[in-house]
TrEMBL record:
Record has Methyltransferase as a keyword: no
Lineage: Bacteria, Pseudomonadati, Bacteroidota, Sphingobacteriia, Sphingobacteriales
Protein name per UniProt: Redoxin family protein
Residue spans of the TPR repeats: 193-226
Subcellular localization: Cell envelope
Stretches assigned to coiled coil: none
Signal sequence annotation: 1-26
InterPro entries, per the entry: Redoxin, Thioredoxin-like_sf, Thioredoxin_CS, Thioredoxin_domain, Thioredoxin_ResA/DsbE_sf, TPR-like_helical_dom_sf, TPR_rpt
């Protein structure tokens, strides 16, 4: 799985990822390799990894191809990945892949080795580490594991760890098999907090949010000193009850001021709140109340917010943080000073000079809020030079990719200065949208609810919001409430909302999730190996597309959250209210 779109979304949604990295990485794109020998494939893919150690696609392709070409040599695979992790210490993905490979390398069919592990478990039945070693040796997908653990549960009926160990293996694999073993664990020991927590994780995948919250409350009651449970409880309300999300996050900061979760709660709330005021409040608390060495990573996000809202304060923060990290913050200080200088020159009626300064600003990759602010400043400076149409054109190019209320207001204002009335601006917008529109590649996929299949042609005459997802995908689940907030405003309009599940192993979750969560999307099953064409999610989720009534892709590569629900609404409105001549256009 790949978390997409703006850094804002990455920060927000990553905090809700409950799945293990192994499952996440299982969803990354698989690049096709030429029909050559296995050894040649591996050699070519090895060179690709070493040329770009942070190319997750190349690493995944090497991993999959190795297992295909050299089955039974998992220890060699682990050794290769371990060597890469040493050679490329900044390689982000190697630790996760090494963990996966090590688990595979631990698998064995040697009766003596398995018996030794079994005896170690029997000698200490409440040792989770010993259970995990035993389960990994057998393999959690091996049907024999259930038989072996049924025997252990009979031998040690008072041990909650035994059913929990098997349940945790299934939870980590996002398998529906976990639930009965978790329930067995809390039946044996109602104070066993990790099992209550596991039931909450499982309930997220079934869509049972209310029941899941009750399980989390039981985990908290069983272990009230554990701030992680309270953090998960707070973050689980993001998108579903924003006020409760905020209240509980502040409570964690008050109750556990010395815990990492106090910092994480404020940082997550700051990133995922819907207002600048709340965002600044959270970041300022992190700045004022916690050691700088623990909050430095959040300060660059705070800088981004301030750069858009208050460049002078952004400069103050950069000057302060430069003493902590001179390399990064020197660049950020320059950004803030350029913002301030550019605005000052505009106030002094020197727009050309201001524009020269603003054009030199290179925002950091993670910049989310200051990006639009910089664009608006550039457009304003351009307009002040008298080139109203250039300002208009500058905003138009961005607006048709990611419309927002702020861009819309400025676009129409500069359009008026260019001699265009509102109708002419709308004509230009639809001309731009039409120019980039592409007929979506047809699909015909099995319905989870009802008989038969659903095809792209079935949605002709409707705007189609299409998302790729799977029940274990935390970012997908986090985005869905915001989709729903927008979609429910169009109950009487021709709008369809469809979700394609990309992980068939989680089919058992899909219908219960749909029915219990209250989300109104139509779930469809992915078909392995189909030609997705320009509706290709590259194996990742969430990946979103918005199609017009003629089945053309108009918007793509976007994510929706508390801050930008209005963006999705504007996209949908543009398509639902499109003029007749736009609707007749072909691509």
């Amino acid at each position: 799985m790949r978390i997409k779109a703006k850094i804002y979304s990455a920060v927000c949604l990553a905090a809700l990822i409950i799945v293990q990295t192994a499952q996440v990485l299982a969803q990354v794109p698989h690049k096709k390799t030429p029909e050559i020998s296995g050894a040649a494939k591996l050699s070519k893919l090895k060179l690709a990894v070493e040329a770009n150690p942070n190319d997750m696609n190349a690493i995944q392709a090497y991993y999959d191809t190795f297992l295909e070409v050299k089955p039974g040599h998992e220890k060699e695979l682990a050794s290769q990945i371990r060597a890469w992790s040493v050679r490329f210490p900044s390689g982000y993905y190697f630790p996760a892949y090494l963990k996966r490979a090590a688990k595979l390398a631990a698998r064995t069919t040697d009766p003596a080795a398995l018996e030794k592990l079994k005896k170690a478990v029997e000698a200490a039945p409440d040792s989770l580490n010993r259970h995990q070693a035993y389960i990994e040796a057998i393999g959690p997908d091996n049907p024999e594991i259930i038989t072996r653990y049924n025997v252990l549960m009979k031998e040690f009926p008072q041990s909650a760890i035994i059913p929990y160990a098997l349940a945790k293996a299934y939870i980590d694999k996002e398998s529906p098999k976990a639930r009965p073993y978790l329930l067995k664990a809390v039946e044996i020991n109602p104070k066993f907090a990790p099992a209550w927590y596991g039931l909450w994780v499982d309930d997220l995948r079934w869509g049972n949010f209310e029941e899941g919250w009750e399980y989390l409350r039981k985990a908290i009651a069983a272990d009230p000193s554990n701030p992680e449970y309270q953090y998960r409880y707070a973050t689980s309300f993001m998108g579903l009850d924003q006020q409760k999300f905020a209240d509980l996050s502040f409570k964690i900061a008050r109750d556990f001021p010395d815990s990492e979760y106090a910092i994480r709660a404020l940082g997550y709330l700051a990133a995922c709140s819907g207002t600048t005021q709340l965002r600044i409040k959270c970041y300022q608390m992190l700045h004022d109340d916690f050691p700088k060495e623990k909050t430095e990573a959040y300060m660059s996000s705070y800088f981004d917010v301030l750069l858009a809202a208050n460049p002078e304060k952004a400069r103050e923060l950069a000057m302060e943080m430069k003493l902590v990290n001179s390399a990064e913050w020197s660049d950020l200080l320059t950004q803030a000073e350029s913002f301030i200088q550019g605005k000052k020159l505009m106030d002094q009626n020197q727009p050309a000079e201001a524009l020269a300064i603003l054009n030199k600003i290179k925002l950091a990759r993670y910049s989310a809020y200051s990006k639009e602010r910089l664009l608006l400043l550039k457009a304003e400076a351009t307009d002040q030079t008298g080139n109203h149409f250039a300002a208009y054109d500058m905003l138009m190019r961005v607006f048709v990719k990611d419309p927002s209320p702020e861009l819309s207001a400025a676009l129409y204002a500069y359009g008026a200065k260019s001699g265009k009335n509102d109708a002419a601006v709308k004509t230009d917008i639809y001309a731009e949208l039409n120019a980039d529109a592409k007929a979506a590649t047809p699909f015909s996929l099995k319905k989870y609810i009802g008989e038969g299949k659903a095809s792209l042609a079935d949605y002709k005459g409707k705007v189609l919001l299409l998302t790729y997802w799977f029940p274990g995908c935390g970012p997908c689940r986090a985005e869905m409430p915001f989709f729903e907030n927008v979609v429910k405003q169009y109950k009487s309009r021709p709008l369809a909302y469809v979700g394609i599940n990309i992980v068939p192993e989680q089919d058992e979750y899909v219908i219960p999730f749909h029915n219990s969560s209250g989300f109104s999307f139509t779930p469809l099953a992915e078909l392995k190996g189909r030609d997705k064409g320009n509706l290709d999610n590259q194996g990742s989720a969430p990946t979103n597309f918005l199609l017009d009534q003629n089945g053309r892709i108009i918007f793509s590569d976007f994510s929706i959250h508390a801050e930008n629900e209005t963006h999705l609404k504007m996209m949908i409105d543009l398509l639902l209210d499109a003029p007749a001549d736009f609707m007749k256009q072909k691509s």
